[in-house]
Amino acid sequence: MSDRNRVIRPVWWQVAVYILTVMLLISYILITTVPYFFENSGAIRNFTGSWKTEEGESLDITDLRVGRSGNEIVIHRALPSSLTDGDCLCFESYNAVITVWVDDREIYSYHTGENLTGRGYGMDFHEVPLRVTDSGREIRIHVRGLFKRMPRIRNLCLGPAVDYVHRCILIRSVPAMVSLFILLLGLVMVLVYFRIPDKENMPFDILALAAMSLIIGAFLIMDTQIMQLLTGNVRIWRELNRTLPLLAAYPCVCFIHSITVQKKRIYLHIAFFFNMAIFLSVLLLRFLGKVDLARSFAPAIAFLIAGAVILMVIVLVDDGLYCREAGIPLRIRNYYPGLIIFFVCAAIDTTQYLITRQLGIYGRFSRFGMLVFVLLSLSQFFRWWTRDRATIERDRFINRALQYAASYGSTGDSIQPMLTYMGNELRPGRIAIFEDQGNGRYRGTYEWHRDGLQAAGLDLLYLPYEGFVDEQYRMFAANNRRLIVRDPEEFRESLPSLYNIMRTYQIRTLVSGALESGGRMIGFLTFLDTPEELLEETAAIIELISYFVTQMIQRREEQKRLEFYSYNDSLSGALNRRAFREFVDGGLDLTAPFGYLAVNINGYEAANNAFGYEAGDRMAGTLVQCLKEVFGDGHVYRMAGAGFAAFGFETDEAYFEGDVERARKLAQERELDVSFGSVYCAYGTMSIDKVIRHAEELMRAD
What we know:
By secondary structure, this protein is of the alpha+beta class. A hairpin with a 2-residue loop joins β7 (96-102) and β8. It starts with a helix and ends with a helix.
């Protein structure tokens, strides 16, 4: 697959739309099917009225709190005369021992005994089987509370047990689905954690968030009693329902700690020991103090929530102060809405539980708050994951671009192939590099253009620093070291010089980034006419690759300096003996006409001895200037301290000898005493060494 197709684009919104679609589908199914099942729920009949106590008091058992009549009660009434073999007496109870008789025959008894949480077992559902022969007979229910003023029964009805269970599940389907969704999100986060290779750079501790979702989601789904209805088991779900929430504080603090900047591990230690102290205290009270969890759970969970909230507030305040002093932006700011919604909803549910303790489904608000919090946190994770994947792809793209460039020769030669690679992959119209010329102007030094376009001649375009480059640099600094122009009209007023150039060259879009070294801008890399959908991606790639382009330019200049010192005599400005030897061995065409001139400065050593080496250097520099004026910069060599050479490539010997005489006159005019020896090879030569020796003999004779 081509890199242009592999350039990653943000997908977090796609995931959000997908999740929203699933939730809407589930909601639609529930809304359209629940009323249908209620209308077709079999022969479930209300059986709450016309009950009487042993004292003759009439009762409507919509919600009977046994504590009003002590810790136990016996109620009775007559059964309908139209029972079938499939009918059951169905109702809910809360921490109660139940015994049911028809006349004097015991037909049902319920008592689970002690468990991990104590004698209590919370809410349970009862289906008491009846027979046709029970029609019209009196039914009695003995309710005895396990704790004073706590046992309750409610919602008595008659009908098939299957229809009753079905009806109870439908009533709890919406909170159960929300709870299950939270639980599944926790499982998904665990799987994602093991699929993420770059765990050190994750935006938060996803395992901590997964633990929160798993614990709170499991608690909330068990709070709906769906698991009891599906499995018929009371004890296991009661024990999990009263122990799991006592372990939720530590992962909550771990998650909050992971989204801070400072990250003091002491807070994790405090959270761990605080959470374990509460959990172990409840167990010790249960097994050593014989304090039932039915009594200790509410104050324990309230104390746990209060302590966890206080600790998290301390973590957030400490991190906020640290970030303010260090001038670092707060990372947690994006999580505030979810945290506020979750804690407000949890506080509402906790307050409702402590005040009313009504039989029913708790955590209505907490489900909503937890779902919102997890989804908002996951949206942050998906943003990070998208950016992280995009960064990885960009890094791979840049590595391939650098490898492509490195496959070429010198550093200077590798910049153009790298631009070609990026151009073919990112599909702009043109790519250009402008470099500071050191005279207040920037000139185009490299250009790539798409097939079918002509070179724009950017090497001839000089951009002034004042009024153009300085304004672009100001825009770079104000826009995260990048400049994106989607429409030139947007910059008509703010960057009129850029607007005029874009209009002149008919440029539709522009993405540019600064090339900086040592805090100084040495150039800028610009993509012209990039496709609209790749502007942001191109800007991000420029930001990453600008460092490497800067290094290439600097190494190119360093290479030029090294080459200059390797092949030039720094004192006189002529090419050195090494350059001379490489030229005569490989660069000189010995079959074509050429002239060779050997020159010596007479009195060079005497000048050095009398006036110092600087005097000799001035004499050498003056002679080189004379020879360059006649033979050109690239044809003058320094062979020894006072010895020089030059090549002339005139097509006629008379022209060459005329240049030799002109060089002699220039040297005499500048008061130099020199000896010349020249040889012209009209048909080339078989041996350059013989030509050199002959020229030196003539020079000595001169």
